[in-house]
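A reminder from the course coordinator: this example appears on the midterm review sheet, so study it carefully.

Given structure:
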């Protein structure tokens, strides 16, 4: 099993640079680091939601078991899908990390949480709670497909996704 300190996304890209099947993917370099853990990896759980973090909260409040929550927020820059309280829940419940295709808030609290957090940007405005969205579906994150059960690896150089543990 790969431990967080035992991989490099650059090395993974070197090893899979000629991959043409789509089993190995690289997310665009648009994500910023916000969590207290800079390097994380694990099997993917997905949530698809738009300006409503009800399913994000439900996910981080459940046992993470070393997994990575990938949130397809539609790239919205208008509402924060994750904040300090949810980051603390993610850490307490054993989530390796959370990647949000959207915004987050409470930057100081997120930095203190012992989980990896990546997102597009910060905004202080929270979401409305409408209990809308989907969980465990294939999502497109910045044009890259990510599926439940894929493996995500994030470090200081970027984020890669594979169809299996590398």
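Designed residues:
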């Amino acid at each position: 099993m790969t431990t967080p300190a035992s991989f490099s996304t650059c090395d993974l890209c070197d090893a899979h640079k000629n991959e043409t099947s789509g089993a190995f993917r690289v997310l665009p370099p648009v994500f910023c680091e916000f969590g207290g853990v800079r390097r994380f990896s694990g099997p993917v759980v997905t949530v698809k939601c738009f300006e409503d973090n009800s399913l994000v909260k439900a996910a981080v409040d459940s046992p993470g078991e070393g997994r990575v929550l990938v949130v397809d927020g539609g790239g919205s820059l208008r509402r924060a899908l994750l904040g300090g309280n949810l980051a603390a829940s993610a850490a307490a419940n054993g989530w390796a990390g959370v990647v949000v295709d959207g915004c987050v808030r409470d930057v100081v609290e997120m930095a203190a949480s012992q989980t990896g957090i990546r997102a597009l940007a910060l905004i202080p405005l929270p979401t409305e709670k409408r209990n809308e969205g989907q969980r465990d579906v294939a999502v497109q994150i910045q044009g890259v497909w990510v599926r439940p059960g894929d493996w995500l690896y994030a470090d200081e150089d970027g984020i890669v996704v594979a169809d299996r543990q590398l």
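The chain has four helices and twelve strands. Residues 49 and 133 are 4 Å apart (CA to CA).
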